[in-house]
Amino acid sequence: MSLKRIEIRWHGRGGQGAITASMILAEGAIYQGKYAQAYPEFGAERRGTPTRAYTRISDEPIYSRAPIIHPDVVVVLDPTLDKSLYMGGLKSNGILVMNTKRSAKEVRDIIGREDIRIVRVDATRIALEILKTPIVNMAMIGALLKSVPVVDMHYVEEAIKENFRPKVAEANILAMKRAFEEAEII
């Protein structure tokens, strides 16, 4: 995976914030002086249905707007999603960032791939403790940044502050930082 360009595919359910996380990360990258794009893909646009979002970050202009079929990183906000929805196309030496109570080793055993890195964090617990709601998107950005420092956290914090009211932004930044600290990588 080249840090000159990274492609990230986000998987969640409507209402969990995968699309917002994709956009916040891209905005942080732009604040840092990189090129970035973020866009969603919907099925039925209802709360609770599976959603996908895409983020591309590059040191050079990005011309493709096609869905990311072979991502460098897959971020899974909802651990109840079937692995067939999110594992397809993940590159060898790619990274799976998973919101789960399971250990990284347990996730590896379930996924059955030795050629990728596994990052796991209990983002639901973090979100419930800090935000008092199971919206895990900013926590998942923290776990992602621990495994792939593609954007300096400071710039992501700025993007969060631009998109949320001050108290909500402060709580989301805290959730992101906590997940960064607690993420387990194998």
From TrEMBL:
Database matches in InterPro entries: Oxidoreductase_gamma_subunit, PorC_KorC, Pyrv/ketoisovalerate_OxRed_cat, Pyrv_flavodox_OxRed_cen
Assigned keywords, A-Z: Oxidoreductase, Pyruvate
Oxidoreductase is among the record's keywords: yes
EC number(s) on file: 1.2.7.1
Keyword Oxidoreductase tagged: yes
Molecular function (Gene Ontology), one example: pyruvate synthase activity
Signal sequence segment: none
Catalytic function, reaction form: 2 oxidized [2Fe-2S]-[ferredoxin] + pyruvate + CoA = 2 reduced [2Fe-2S]-[ferredoxin] + acetyl-CoA + CO2 + H(+)
Name by which UniProt lists this protein: pyruvate synthase
Taxonomic source organism: Ignisphaera aggregans (strain DSM 17230 / JCM 13409 / AQ1.S1)
